[in-house]
Amino acid sequence: MIIIAWSRSNKPHVRNRDLTMNETWTVRKLIAWTAQWFADHSIASPRLDAELLLASILNCSRLDLYLMPDKPVDDHERSLFKSLIRRRIQREPVAYILGNKEFWSREFIVSPAVLIPRPETETLIETALTLTPECEDFRIADLGTGSGCIAITLALETATTHVIATDLSMEALAIARQNAERLGAGERIVFLHGSWFEPLNAVAALQSFDCIVSNPPYIRTGMIESLQPEIRMYEPFNALDGGLSGIDAYEVLAAGAMRWLKPGGRIILEIGDDQANAVETFLLNASFEAIDKIRDTSGKYRVVTGRKVCRN
Questions:
Q1: Is there a single domain that holds both residue 243 and residue 179?
Q2: What does the H/E/C string look like for the chain?
């Protein structure tokens, strides 16, 4: 068990027992102490993590912390804060500790049943919104929805879009449904249990979609153990594992999308940064046209799109 001691020197260390301190611990002092301890333990964003965890204990925003740097933190609050620090030192992601993660300026519930939404996925959202016309009854399928962040964001950012979201994990679907209800998208999204396109076959009313989106697993199986502990120890393996080559899901998605897309409909796929050419090949082999490879803000290829051929 890790025991955190608050020392008068403000230098973090681990002791066999807690120290009972009489000094006053302020917001400023706790953040500085914790950020240094996180840095000493190779936490990637030590100050940000310290601020997020303390803000959750004090039930305030990060900005509020800067507005009250000299506010004393009482013994009870400090005890709760210590428990969160212990979890972070074990490399549990902050998003799982807090139970939420911001994506596209909205707060999504997350748990170890779902991948933590990442900023890179906003490139998929931007692409989909660019390609989504303002029309009645625009229909999107989000395959492997996880937390529901893609499906919900697309539903809320467009006026008339309706979404079908599928996932193989019942636990993930439960989280996605909670997010949809909380964020006001519950009436515009139908969640179905099953792998990729399989659940669509059981819904007789479904005909076809204007757009299919997916952020499938794309990490090579052999590389998962080399990922940072926050990912390999805590995030769901099945949502990471893209098979030996990392691209197993894309061939399935490219081939299946042809059946479910309307003529002129789009497939939009998030990819790993070295997979653009392979995914382009899958789409071409499935007879998609107008293939486009799109870079994220770091300049890496992050999304590949294709269009189902229109026939007169």
A1: yes
A2: CCCEECCCCCCCEECCCCCCCCCCCEHHHHHHHHHHHHHHCCCCCHHHHHHHHHHHHHCCCHHHHHHCCCCECCHHHHHHHHHHHHHHHCCCCHHHHHCEEEECCEEEECCCCCCCCCHHHHHHHHHHHHHCCCCCCEEEEEECCCCCHHHHHHHHHCCCEEEEEEECCHHHHHHHHHHHHHHCCHHHEEEEECCCCHHHHHCCCCCCEEEEEECCCCECHHHHHHCCHHHHCCCCHHHCECCCCCCHHHHHHHHHHHHHEEEEEEEEEECCCCCHHHHHHHHHHCCEEEEEEEECCCCCEEEEEEEECCCC
